Amino acid sequence: MSKFYLKKRILVxxxxxxxGRQLVQKLVSFGALVTVVSLDDFKSSKNxxxxxCDLRSFDNCIKVCKNIDIVFNLAGVKGSPKMTIEQPxxxxxxxxxxxxxxxxxxxxxxxxxxxxxxxxxxxxxKKTFIEDDVWKTFPSKNDKFAGWAKRISELQSxxxxxxxxxxxxSIVRPANxxxxxxxxxxxxxxxxxSLIYKSLxxxxxxxxxxxxxxxxxxxYSSDVADGMILAVKKGYTKPINLGSGKKTSxxxxxxxxxxxxxxxxxxxxxxxxxxxxxKIRLMNIDRAxxxxxxxxxxxxxxxxxxxxxxxSNKKELNKKKYNSFxxxx
Length: 329
Prior knowledge:
This protein is an alpha/beta fold. Helices cover about 40% and strands about 20% of the residues.
């Protein structure tokens, strides 16, 4: 793996996010020359350069793609379903703008390979998500704006292959990703970071929506980064799901968190009057496995590592803008 990336000039958009940080660390360890584009301020180091710019500008996209061999596009506006319902334009419009612009800039710059990070939100509700089923359906109403925003650049990739014969784009659809540098904003976080944050700040009991029965596919951020690295190295251009391939209930998530928090165990109060979402949402990862993908971090270990990271970084996070617990992937 490392030989392929050695000395490659790589651009990572969204490299300051949860998956991006894992990806960048791995690429640098392979000897790649990595440039991270972010709206945040970071210090550059050996083999790692940070550029602060807004990729909604096409001119900026052209500039950052100059002399680049490989582009990983992980940029996106991350938020809860509540956020995408109440503030859909703030999610939908920027996501489309920088996705369209960066892929076009990469094509014009004739980069060797390009990775586009799509989303589980492209799928219609179903027990198991299979890659080729996407275009037979519409996204869930709950994922309407997120799903269509991501689908648009998947179509962009297909259009480029047809018109320009530019068949260099890998597309990954991560499952429910969690890990260090996740979004822990109590009002705008996904299920695992939200429950971790609520648990760490609870006194005697934790209130959880629903009855804990819904099943999901949760995948640790470093495993997703490994899948991305593999897809680009292989030059694989069919969309692939990156999940754990395992069934995990919300009840199980609560139990794991409860036994790993320093203020636990807490009493759990299930509020069955609140919505709990679809009963089951799993990803079929056979296609990813066929090219060598193998998740390494199970849900128990992943949640434990995430809690440890948050406890170690909470004070520092609260001092910074990022640690309003709002993050871009």
